Each structure stands twice: as structure tokens, then as C-alpha cells.
Amino acid sequence: MNRILVIGAGRSATSLIKYLLEACAKHRWTLTVAEADIELAQKKVGGHTAGKVVKLDAAQPGDRRRLVSDADVVISMLPPGLHHEVALDCIALGKHLFTASYVSPQMYALDEEVQRAGLIFVGELGLDPGIDHMSAIEKIHEIKALGGHLTAFRSYTGGLVAPESDDNPWHYKISWNPRNVVLAGQGTARYLEQGSLKFLPYHRLFDSYRLIDVPGYGKFETYPNRDSLQYRSIYELDDIPTLIRGTIRHRGFCDAWHALVMLGLTDATYQIPASANWTYRQWLASYLPAAASALSLEDRVARVIVRKRVVQVMHQLRWLGLFDDTPIGIPNASPAQILEGLLLRKWSLRPTDKDMVVMQHQFEYELGAQRHLLTSTLVMRGHDADATAMSALVGLPLGIFVRHVMLGHFRKTGVRIPVTPDMYRPVLAELHDFGMEFFEKTKLLP
Amino acid sequence: MNRILVIGAGRSATSLIKYLLEACAKHRWTLTVAEADIELAQKKVGGHTAGKVVKLDAAQPGDRRRLVSDADVVISMLPPGLHHEVALDCIALGKHLFTASYVSPQMYALDEEVQRAGLIFVGELGLDPGIDHMSAIEKIHEIKALGGHLTAFRSYTGGLVAPESDDNPWHYKISWNPRNVVLAGQGTARYLEQGSLKFLPYHRLFDSYRLIDVPGYGKFETYPNRDSLQYRSIYELDDIPTLIRGTIRHRGFCDAWHALVMLGLTDATYQIPASANWTYRQWLASYLPAAASALSLEDRVARVIVRKRVVQVMHQLRWLGLFDDTPIGIPNASPAQILEGLLLRKWSLRPTDKDMVVMQHQFEYELGAQRHLLTSTLVMRGHDADATAMSALVGLPLGIFVRHVMLGHFRKTGVRIPVTPDMYRPVLAELHDFGMEFFEKTKLLP
Questions:
Q1: How far apart are CA A395 and CA A100, in angstroms?
Q2: Partner B contacted by A211 (CB < 8 A)
Q3: Residue among A194, A204, A285 minimizing CB distance to B196
Q4: What is the rounded radius of gyration, in angstroms, for the C-alpha atoms of chain A?
Q5: What is the pTM of this model?
Q6: What pLDDT score does B12 carry?
Q7: Is residue A252 over pLDDT 80?
Q8: B195 in contact with A at a CB cutoff of 8 Å?
Q9: How far apart are the two ends of chain A, measured CA to CA in Å?
Q10: Contact flag A200-B290 (C-beta cutoff 8 Å)
């Protein structure tokens, strides 16, 4: 095995490509990066001798299969919806496949075929999902090995902006897929708390945040992610009474995002006809009934929508440009698309801006008669808008694991995620060499 | 033509079957009522000599087609999702088809085929859609014929309980499909107001109701229905600045229903595992975070969810049984299914209860230099829980129009809705004989 194919060279692929180029140079392997935006790919490969760039529209099966057939190992950095197509190519052509995305039930259904073909398919090799699993399960295994009995597990991750680059009232900049920033949390979140199943619908999600403390950085806001329960058996915590997975935001984000949700601006289910010629102000006004009195649009938004921290939230909405007479410029867009367009401009990392990834696990466990709270926190900052912490933490575990496979150190076939020691240990060890370090704190509980 | 087939004998078919039996007796036609619940159908046909009852599972194409082939005219009272199958049968077998449901784009797409087969397919022949169209368009045509220029049209309909049978704090009982009562308003409503397109997301819909006055009955609450805009061209009001279609509820309903929406109890998109053994109280508690303090569930609901009229809304929630330790009894139900099960018991019409249908159209128009407001209101009460106003107003227009077709008075082929004078006039005239009367009031506007 000496030929690696990476399909997709977007925001999250920077560190992955850099890592693989160095590994290829060292081991005399070759890397092909296939991408629709050829300039983007060329910039990331940077003329490295071990690397080659190919233009690819991943939706074209013929071109895609030709590239897959020329590789030994395929890494798909495509949007999750396209992984399945690539997986079928890999089975047909006998290639191993790796992704940083959630393994879908559809993908798990290929397990038998993948095993029969003697192939290795591993997903959830990024940050979240990925490092969150690996670091949590390592710790859960440690606590259990000590004889501890887990009673609560809470795990939070956030892709944020570093304090020194934080210069807007939302305290947020985009370091990952902006569409997912807009759609985050849609549906109903479910989690376990004190032995009871809990549901939290989207229209209350950002209004129900809880605070966590990140040593050295102060308080952050968290809200639960989609379905925490599906991690119960993955984490071998089938009888745990409290299990929450959540997202981290800087203080002041959630109240203002809740206002956007209440207005209806994050909805992706319908299009607004002729939206290109509307202004943001007209768009915003379309979510409030016609003014019965002489109240300004600002006053009506403040009275009807904003429930908490009115002055601050109104400042955040105004700063975003929602009250501006600027044309939207996107034809027949959904509310979510209009908002994404706006946020891409307002929340972009400037070239020298640093992002910051924060992850915190909280483990409550009983050891003998004593209750403990172990808090394990990772804070990692990026170098600039290109070499982000997000790109490092999504790409490095993928690169490290693929190298591991290329060297013949992992041979188990089938569809998997990195939750066993033989998978997470080498990845976490090498990530540590890259500066990824969890800070741990233990507290005795009454 | 002398053979009529009615498929489905549910809640809304009572008056239709009664009307058709009388018409059949008079004109020596025959009526076949096909229904899965044979006893229900027998009760409605009541041994009438012109009527016959046949057991039918409408999802079985073979049985369905056999019945359709034995008829000249088919009336589908099935759930809307099944009309299309019946429509294909009717085309294949050369039968006319009538429904009280919205004509779907899929159904309109059959227009050419229907015309080619020389058949008459008419939908929206019920109350809403149906009488609302017919009565509004008649009035719009009148105003235009006078030379009036319409500047606003608002149309509201509600299937309610009559005041003398109203004995619960919600002031609501179920006279139509209970599933639709629970799902009403989900999505984003859109309407036109003062020349601007307006959006109102579900999580604010019941919090944004407006009042209308029904002469002799006082104030009612209204909220906009799904997409008022699609009625612009049907009503020939393409340049009207204000167009709202809405639903009517008694005073005090919307604030409490808004609490159910905010809790998340109307959601039909996910199942709750093992819900049969939960109590309503446990279910309700699952929508609130674990208690941090000694606050009761009642206090937490009141503080977190209820924004307006707290005492009254809490009384409504308590009366519904949401705080009760009664088992739910429905396995793996969605929230919407659990709520429907509860409402079916709590909001059922008792045998002697009377329902009440209220419809109000508001037309604003300019005639010369003068602005007018014409308010046209229909209030109709049922006789009892079986012979409801809802069943009369859904079934009679359908029966009347079908009789009209059977007598050869309407011969236009193709897929249609009753918006032309040759369709609405005979129906409205005969409905008038059945006691359906709009009360009109005109006011000069400044």
C-alpha cells in the first residue's frame, strides 16, 4: 500500500493534507488530492513532491471511480451525504475508506460486505465525532479499571474563536461548515438526567443553556446536542443515569441566537420568492405583523422577540446587519441560506485570527463510598485563519490513523469507529505530540 | 347514471350519506357505502332501502376497483393521502370523482387524462376547503360587479363547540379529525399584510392570535393558516395588499395551546420508547430539565413555559390531565399521538352536545372615493354529537354538487374546484335551504 487519495480539500482538510504529505515523503508514498476547486487544492498541496492535485466533480461516478481505482486507501472529506457513493466504489474496487463523519446506519449496513472484501472502513475519526469518543472512552476505561462506577457523563465540544481574536458582540467566528452553524440543534434534543429521559425542542434549546467552567478561560454556555442516548452503548454506559453531549459557545451567544430562532430566521424548509431584491430589514420585518402603531421595527423586535438581556441582544442583532437596508442578493433563498450568507461575511476569521477548540468531559463516579467528579478539558488554539485548531483536530486523527493502517499496524476489517484501545491509543498518543493535551481536575463530591 | 359509491363513512360523512339516501330514494338511484368499520357504516345508512353497505379496506386495490367499477360516481371520504389511488382507479374505469379535500398538485396533474376520458373530478367541495371558497368568491364577484376595488380580504373558519355545550376550560371539543387538531399550524404560516409578505413560525403562531367579533357571540381568537398566498389567484385577487386565511378558536384557547407547543407536546416527528408505561406526569416532566431546587413540576412548568394568563393556562393544563399519574397506554407513541389520545377523551362531544361552525369573511374595498368593510359571518350549530354542523357543512355541498352532476346539470370535464358561478351558485342556493345563512354587516371606513 503506497497510494492515498483524499477527496475534498475544504476548510477541514488543511492539516490532514499537510500531515499526509509529510508521511508520504517519509515513507515514499504518494498523495492525490481530488477537489472541484483546483486552486484551493493546489494551495493546500503547495507543490509538495509527494502530492498531486486532480480536478474532480465528486458527483460524477466515472471520474470518481477512476481515481479510487488508482489508490490503495481513500479518505472522503466530502459532505456526509456523498460518503455512501464513495463507499460503494471502495467495495467494488477493493479499497479501504476513512472519514471524519458520523457512520450512518446505511454505512453500518455495509459491514458484512466490507468484511467479505477484506476491507477496513473507519468513520468518526475527526474531532466531534472522533477525539470526543477517543478521549472519553479512554477515561471511562481508566475509571472502570480502577473499580469506579460511573453515575454521570457530560461531554461538550465547541469550535470557537480565541479570546485574542474575538472582536464581535456574538463572540463567534466560523471555523467549520457555516451551513451547520445555522442548522445546529434543529429537531428535538434528548438526553438522560438523573435516570429520566429528557426532551428539549429547538425553540427552547438556546433559551435553556447551562454554564460550564473552563480553567483559565472562565464560563462558557452549553446546550445539548441531538440524541445523547445513542452514545450509551458506544461508551459502555448502558445503565448510567445522566448522559449529556452538548455544544459549547462563548457567554452571550445563546440568548441572541435564541432570538434568531424565535424570529424564524434559521428555517431551511422553505424558499422566499425574489429574496435577492429584498433588504435584510425587509426580510426581518416579514417576521413581524404589520405595525399597528408608530413603533419602529427595532422596538417591535425588542418587545415581541427578545426575552432576556434585551439591550445586549438587540445590539447583537443590529451588529449582524438585520436592520440594514442592504439587499440580500441571493435569489429564492431559504431563511437559513440568507442567514448563512450574512454570517459568512460577519463571522469570518480574518487572515491572522486564531480559532479555538474547547472540549470538556465531566465524569461523576463512585469509588468505594466516595463520589468523585473528574473534569477533563482540552483547549487548543489555531495559528491563523488557515491553520486552524479545528482543521488540526479534525484532520490529524484521520491522518494518524490512516498512516497506522498504511504501516500495517491495524488490520481489523469491517465498518468501525475508534472506540477500542487498539484504535484510540496510537491516535491519542501521537495527538499528544502535536500539543493536544487534556487538563484534568478531580473534586470529591458530598 | 344512477349508482353512487361513497368510500369512507367517518365523522364527516354522516350528513353526506343522509342527503344522498334521500336523493337516491327520490331519483331511484342507489348508494353504496364502503367502509372498513362495517357497523359504523350500517349505523349511518340505517337500513335505508336505497343504501347498501360493503366492507372495504381501501388500501386493497382489487376490492376497491371492483366497487368503483360497479358505480357511476365515486365520492372519496378517505384520508387525503388515499385520494390519488382512487383517482387512478376512476380514470381507468371511467368514473367521476368528488372529494371534500384539497386538490393536490398530483391530482391537478391528472387534468388532461381526466378530460380525455370525459370525466368530472371535483375537490374542495366541503367546508374549508369548500364553502369558504364558494361564499367568498360569490361575494368577491359581487363587489367587483359593483365596481369595487378590493384592498383586503381576511377569511376565518373554525369547527368549535356551541356555547351551551361548552363545559371545559379550553372551550373546545373535537368535531373533526383529531389528528389534525393536534397538528394544526405546524410549519410556517405566510400571509400578505399591507403589501408585504409575512411569515409566522409555528412556535409563535398561537402566541400571535388576533381577535374577531362574531355578532351575537362576542370575540373569538384567530391565527393564520399555512399559506394564504396560494389563494390569491384562485380568488382573482392577484394585486390585493392584504390576504389572510385563518382558523377560529374560542377566547382562551390559543394561550394554552401555545404552552403545549412550547413544551414540545405536539411534535409528530419522533417516537418515545416504551411510552405505554409512562404516566402523563412523567411525560410532561421529560420536557423540563431535572429540578435543581425543590420546585414542584407545576411550578417549573408555570415559570419556564407559561408566559401569559399563567393561572388560567395552568388550570387548562391541569384539567387536561398532563400532571396526572395516569399511564399513557400507547406504546412507542409520538408526542402528537399521546396528546391526541388524551384530547380524544377530554374533548369528546357528549351525545347531546352541539358543535358550532363559525366562518367569517372580511372584505375591504374602495367604491369611488369611499372605503368599505363588509363582514360576512356564518354561524351554524349542530343537533347533537352525531348530526354535527361540521358534518353538515362538509357533507352537504358535496352531496348537492354530486346530485347536480347526476342530474346532468354540470358537464365540464377535468380536475376542478368550485370557484365558478356555475359551480358555486346551485350549491350555495341549496345550502341556504338547509339553513346555512351568512349574516352581513357593512361599515364605512375613514
A1: 8
A2: no
A3: A285
A4: 23
A5: 0.93
A6: 86
A7: yes
A8: no
A9: 55
A10: no
DSSP string, B373-385: EEEEEEEEE-SSS
The mean pLDDT of chain A is 96
Res B420 pLDDT > 90: yes
ω into residue A129 within 30 of 0, thus cis?
A: yes
pLDDT higher than 90, residue A393: yes
The per-residue pLDDT for A430 is 97
pLDDT at A176: 87
At A21, the pLDDT band (50, 70, 90 cuts) reads very high
CA distance B291 to chain A (A): 10
Q: Does B293 touch chain A (CB under 8 A)?
A: no
Residue of A188, A199, A281, A306 to mutate, testing the B interface (most B Cβ within 10 Å of its Cβ) = A199
pLDDT digits (tens, 9 = 90+) for B283-304: 999 999 887 778 899 999 999 8
The pLDDT score that the predictor gives to residue B292 is: 72
pLDDT-derived band at A172 (thresholds 50, 70, 90) equals: very high
For chain B, give the mean pLDDT: 96
In DSSP terms, A355 is beta-bridged to A161
Question: Nearest-CA neighbor of A381 among A373, A371, A391?
Answer: A391
- Tell me: pLDDT of A75 over 90: yes
Query: What mean pLDDT is predicted for residues B81-88?
Result: 94
Whether the Cβ atoms of residue B67 and residue B74 lie closer than 8 Å to each other: no
Using an 8 Å CB-CB cutoff, list chain A residues near B286. 196-199
Assess whether pLDDT exceeds 80 at residue A291: no
Strand order in the sheet with B73-76: B51-55, B30-35, B3-7, B73-76, B96-99, B120-122, B414-416
List all residues 6 or more positions away from A112 whose beta carbon is below 8 Å from its beta carbon.
none
State how far residue A367 is from chain B, nearest Cα, in angstroms: 24
Measured distance CA(B16)–CA(A47) in Å, rounded: 78
The answer to whether B353 and B146 have CB atoms below 8 angstroms apart is no
Kindly state the average pLDDT of the residues B112-116.
Answer: 97
Hey, is the C-beta of B199 within 8 angstroms of any chain A C-beta? yes
The per-residue DSSP string of A248-295 comes to: EEETTHHHHHHHHHHHTTT--S-PPTTGGGSBHHHHHHTTSPPPSSS-
Contact (Cβ atoms closer than 8 angstroms) between residue A61 and residue A85: yes
Cell numbers at A33, concatenated: 488530492
C-alpha span between B78 and A315 (Å, rounded): 53
Once rounded to an integer, what is the mean pLDDT over residues B395-421?
A: 97
Residue A234 near residue A417, CB atoms below 8 Å: yes
Q: Does B199 contact A289 at a Cβ distance shorter than 8 Å?
A: no
CA-based torsion, B160, B161, B164, B168: positive or negative = negative
The ipTM of this complex is: 0.91
Question: Which residues of chain A neighbour B264 with C-beta distances below 8 Å?
Answer: 188, 199-201, 204
CB burial readout B203-240, b (16+ within 10 A) else e? bbbbbbbbebebeeeeebbbbbbeebeebeeebebeeb
CB contact under 8 A, B264 and A201: yes
A231-235, A315-319, A383-387, B339-343: least confidently modelled range: A231-235
Which of A204, A211, A226 is best to mutate for the B interface (most B CBs within 10 A)? Answer: A204
Quote the pLDDT of residue B262.
97
Compute the nearest-CA separation of A282 from chain B (Å): 9
SS3 A226: coil
Q: Is A286 on the interface with B (CB under 8 A)?
A: yes
Residue at B94: amino acid letter = G
Find the CB nearest A199 among B196, B208, B264.
B264
User: For an interface test with B, which of A203, A265, A301 has the most B Cβ atoms less than 10 Å from its Cβ?
Assistant: A203
- Residues of chain A with C-beta less than 8 angstroms from the C-beta of B272: 197
- Smallest Cβ distance to A264: which of B196, B199, B285? B199
